[in-house]
Protein 1
Amino acid sequence: MISIKNLSDHDLEAATLHQAKSEQSATLKLLEYLSELDARELYAKRGYSSLFVYVRDVLHYSESQASERINSMRLMRKVPEVKEALADKKLNLTNAAKIASFARQEKLSVKDTARVVAECAGKSTREVESLLLAQSSAPAGAKPETLKPVSVERSRLSVDLDQEMLQHIETIKKHSANPHLTIGDILKIALKNEAHRLEKRLTVKPPARETCVKNSTVPHKANESGSGEKKESANNGDSEPALTRDVSLLNAVAKPASPSKNHSSQKDLASDLPQCEPKKHRSRYIPKALKVAVRERAHHCCEYVDPESGKRCGAVKYLQLDHITPFAKGGTHTLDNLQILCARHNQLRVPQHLRPETRH
């Protein structure tokens, strides 16, 4: 085999073009395989909570690459014309993924999605972003701010700036003694000054309360001679028994229950957890203590295990409590009949024809 370094310029360029075409063809074929794998939910049967996790962990794509391929695959399944556009290089994976996210966000029909695909064909990524932004129903500037760590001591902040903020930055740069002042330096100085101002404001001592005390005591002295007799006569009347009754009533209401009784009742509840419900008037209510016991046994992660490889899912998000023997078929609320599953593996137990319509 001839070494790449020994190839002529013409042969090197031809070989590079051939490899690029092979890669594009292989990517299209991969999307077709992913579509069928998604339709069969094979990733869930293998113990993975989502197709994204399967593509990332099994096929060893990065998170961005996995997201692009999955979104492009689902767009191709929704609009068959996407496959031809990808093959003719009128559409790349990045633009296809952006269109798929836009169609899902705007809840576009198949017809409207196909129209957007046709409008984006042959355009650059920046042109596609501008086109989708112009048609988006979301308000401008609604993109959330992101903070991503880039090292142990530094993080990258992504935030949108309006024209007023940009003008302030340019003014500071123009009149600053440091010609190499960056936006990060400007933000650091501004935040430091604002934090110092707030700290100084919070450390200011409150005014003395002597005047307030004196003002409050003046009316009291004025009323000692005038209304004091009326107050004494009112207190010596029927209000004292009424006040006594109110205090006794409040004490009776606020009196806490005996802790020993609560403790014993919790013990009785825990001892009754494994017992089956009565045959009549069965309730779907599952005691909280039993739910906690099931989650602790599962270590707060999905308990699904692939019967072939023995791999456990282990997902920690979107966990649901599931009856091994369905409740509708006589399954009981017992520790042995309950398990923790992620949303995908809980849905996997439901027959395909009984599920709601799946998204594209």
Protein 2
Amino acid sequence: MSGGGNEMNWMRAARTWSLAIVAIFLALVLAYADLGKVAHSFSGIRWQWAIWVPILNLANTFVEALRLSVILFPVKNELRVRNCFNSTLIGIIGNIMLPLRFGDGARAYYLARAEKIGLSHSLSAVALDRVADFLVFFLLMALTAVLHPFPPSVTKMGIAAGSFFAAAVAVAFIFARMGLRLGAVDSAGKIRRRIAEETNKFVAGLAVMRKAGLLFPVLALSALSWFLRAAMVWVMFEAFALDLPLMATPITLILLNFGIAAVGTPANLGGFELATVAALKLFSVEISVALSYALALHVLEVVSIVAVGSVFLWLEGFKTGEVLKTAREVEYPD
């Protein structure tokens, strides 16, 4: 338990520091923003456009659930999409309630328990789900950079993030191969064999990568997911009557995702707003308007998915409070 206590202390410290940094930057933004104009921008929201944000967000959640079910098809071809949808909701709500994306762990744990598959299978599927998502994101960024060059700082950040992503995937595969070799030795001990068994399950969860007929749907669903997320950004431009060029949508989406990735706060609080304001500043949008846009988009995304997700999970017999319990079980299994 002492190790677990140290990890919890480290998590609290990381969350405190990230919140402190975000609070400082938000204070600077608020210092330059005209709160009267922020309120005026809110009052002028065209709700016939804004109402599409929660609808598109729920549609994207379903697309992500479909992608996860395709990834797990080689492991269990009778997988229920309903459980994938539930696990995706649990992951989203968990990431909102917890720092450092621990919701993804809760998502994998719930799916393993609901579908009675190995946790290693489920973890590898969720990891591959993230890889597919990031891969399409970097392709989107590369295409956007060709059509509309980013500022040098953003380009450097993108190259660094892409390099880190590629290195992380390579290291994961190297460790997977090492784990398989541990069990291949006749004299391998009990611990080594257990590692090899779990590694085998993890690698089995990546089987979709060897099946071109399934890999294409995974990437296609990832592209559709990013399209729906871009649509949320665009409809909010219309809701605020912002007359911006077409490329403002992918650029805002890309910088927004870099912002929330850099700051691991619950519900992406602060990082979401700062990144959105910075993106809109590139298109000469006034800080007050950009801040009201960011706040409105964030609230519509978070509140809608938490509200609908909580009701849906409650109807399924899974209380929202269990997300935290499930996440703790992932961190400290018996």
